[in-house]
Known about the structure:
The chain is an alpha+beta fold. 31% of the residues lie in helices and 12% in strands. The longest helix is centred in the C-terminal third of the chain and has 28 residues, at 85-112. The protein is elongated, with a radius of gyration of 23 Å. It starts with 12 loop residues before the first helix and ends with a helix.
Amino acid sequence: xTRSSIKGPYVDPRILKKLEGKKPSTAGVIKTWSRACQIxxxxxxxxxxxxxxxxxxxxxxxxxxxxxRLGEFALTRKFVRHGGKMQKDLEMAQKExxxxxxxxxxxxxxxxx
Length: 113
């Protein structure tokens, strides 16, 4: 459920306090554990170190991110690809096909000259 529009967006006051009087170019990485904090227009240009449960992931804030939460840009789960030996064989065959296609394209351009 979203936050009530009467209350307004949740912006952590500790983050705003860290931003006071700083310029985005000289501030460096601002560490935070507040993943639920919404990105305000004052935060544009700053780099935040958002904690994902293990370490801080650097998030550079742009204008498109305003209104989203900081936690949306620091994933908490690491994707490990699917498959085993069969998947590996398929990937190798695909790479070999790409290499063969590149060689064929290179050979075609050399014969035109």
